[in-house]
Amino acid sequence: MARDFFRQATAGVSPQGSLISQIQTTLNAVPNAPQIRVDGDFGGNTSTAVRNFQASNHLQPTGAVTDQVWQMLTNSGAPSMFERCLQVTASYEGTGYTHVVGNFDGAGITWGIIGFTLLAGGELGVVIKKINTDFPALVAQAFGANAAELLRICDPATSAADKTAFANSVTRNGGGVIEPWNTSFQTLGGFPQVQALQTQRARDIYWAIAVGDARALSMEEELDLTLMFDVAVQNGGLQGNHLLQPIKDAFATEMPATEQARRLIVTRFVTDASNPASADDVNSRKSCISTGSGTVHRSPYLLSGWALLDGVIPPPEILSTEPVDPDILRFRDLRLAAARAKTMRSNGAER
């Protein structure tokens, strides 16, 4: 069945993320095509570039990336389901690959696409170590004379007290991070190699949680997986919060007639399990995904324009996951604890 994957929103938030960057980069590679900024945001210039591409290929110039346009641009059948989910949750989180916030919430420093933290799981240290091992020149380039201090603070041997003291010392009023640390983290997150590493980390940990929860509930639609991924990132997953069996019981008792109704039951349980301070935010995110539209952080979303449709089941191979090594499993458990704690802290500050 023909469908639109991505299109500019007429109101609210347009699709944004790595898949949009891929589209923009490919459009720029079309011979004689006007160049557009590769910013990962499906705005007016991107829509115009798609329209021009369609017209030059004798297609209806709608400005939307249809399945046919996607195939022509990328030579692949459909966008990665994981990356579609990641785009939505990353938009909700508001951090992107580059943004960093300070110690407004007890997590120390929070940076990157799904919020790697210095404390509350300590995965920032894992990610920084991996970057420094694989691409040491990038850490040196981004942080300069502060690179050694960054590595010391992120070292597992550094005490929580020292990490907290450092985080407090670089946190400015409002929850941001002072210079030059702010620019250094933004620079590091801007390198394509670092973005790829962040994405892989999100896949190894959160996608594994999301797919496991979805399979346990026999939920397999695009919006089902998007919901499970957002629960994994924001709340630590259903299994980690001991919600799988209560949700199964609710399905059996309430006998929801549609998949959307099943998603709304999941939303209810996850919201009820959240701290009251963050329950409204949890509910708005999960309800938006469950129904395919809604308002999150005062911004309207229509997820059909993000390649996510109600009633559509992605190909089975799109749910496959790589074998997970023990190190990833260990830090997945840490992130479960950290994500559960996250919903007990304020969702304010600059995120």
Largest sheet: 3 strands, antiparallel
**Class inferred from helices and paired strands:** mainly alpha
Average of per-residue pLDDT values: 90
Radius of gyration: 20 Å
Query: What form results from the Cα inertia axes?
Result: globular
Distance between the termini: 38 Å
* SS strand fraction: 5-15%
Total number of beta strands = 7
The H-and-E topology, N to C, reads as EHHEHHEEEHHHHHHHHHHEEH
* Helical segment count: 15
Number of domains: 3
Strand order of the largest sheet: 3-4-5
The percent of residues in helical segments reads 40-55%
Unreliable stretches, pLDDT < 50, 5 or more residues? 321-331, 344-351
What descriptive keywords fit this protein?
351 residues, mainly alpha, Muramoyl-pentapeptide Carboxypeptidase, domain 1, 3 domains, three-stranded antiparallel sheet, two-stranded antiparallel ribbon, 54% helix, globular
Task: Outline the structure in words.
- This protein is mainly alpha-helical and about 350 residues long.
- It has helices at about 20-30, 45-55, 65-75, 80-95, 125-135, 135-145, 145-155, 160-170, 180-190, 190-215, 220-235, 245-255, 260-270, 275-290, 325-340, and strands at about 5, 65, 100, 110, 115, 295, 300.
- It contains 15 helices and 7 strands.
- It folds into 3 domains: about 5-80, Orthogonal Bundle (Muramoyl-pentapeptide Carboxypeptidase, domain 1), CATH 1.10.101; about 100-195, no CATH class; about 200-340, no CATH class.
- It has a 3-stranded antiparallel sheet with strand order 3-4-5.
- A hairpin with a 2-residue loop joins strand 6 and strand 7.
